[in-house]
Amino acid sequence: MWIFIDVILWSTNRPDLVMFGWSLQILLEPIVYALIFYILYTYFRQSFPGIYLNIFIALLLLPIILLLPTSLTVVDLPLSYCEATEGFLASHYSYFVNLTLLGLAVIYSIIFIKQTRVTNKYRAGLYLLSAFTLFALTFTGFNIVSTITGDWTLSQYGLFSIPIFALLLGYAIIEFNAFNGRQFSVKLIVLALWLSVGSLLFIVQSDVGRIITFFTLAFTILTGYFLIKSVSK
């Protein structure tokens, strides 16, 4: 999705599309890092993080979600070169969130790897950690350089880590059976459903629509939880 939005940004000069796509990318980046943390944590612990850790991650993401439509995210869009001027949340806070989530993922992974005997799970864990860390550092590194220099063409080089990431991830899954295919697929589908329904809260304008969306989200969270539990048995 990030690549798809990036293609739109580089192929259009419509201010409305650029502003929308730019803001959406700012939201997607920390969500990707949160997913990296949850995937690694779930793989090593075979369970979701505790309530306090989930609250901490939610509090990290909350300012970006709530203030996404404000000038703290995107200040303006100079029509001369059609690149957004980023606010504090985009140019500073989002990178703090990304690196914090990556740091948590690396720390927890190293702790769990040390506690694991040298087995297929141990080797697969090393491949997964290497894949996610390489992707995250490359991706964020070039974005930080682009933010400092103002040259957003440099951020495109971060995308070159995606094929390497995909190869390492695929190798870990195939060679070491890193994930239970059925469980992993169900969790991804449920998570995608939660994000899709939850995002409607920021799109729907009417109060009635938001109430319906809220109850729909609560229902999908409840049923998704029990679905994951039933598949895991």
From TrEMBL:
Coiled coil: none
Residues spanning the membrane: 20-44, 51-72, 92-113, 125-145, 157-174, 186-205, 211-228
Entry keyword annotation includes Nucleotidyltransferase: no
Keywords: Membrane, Transmembrane, Transmembrane helix
Keyword Metal-binding belongs to the record: no
Protein name: Histidine kinase N-terminal 7TM region domain-containing protein
Protein species of origin: Candidatus Kaiserbacteria bacterium CG10_big_fil_rev_8_21_14_0_10_44_10
Lineage: Bacteria, Candidatus Kaiseribacteriota
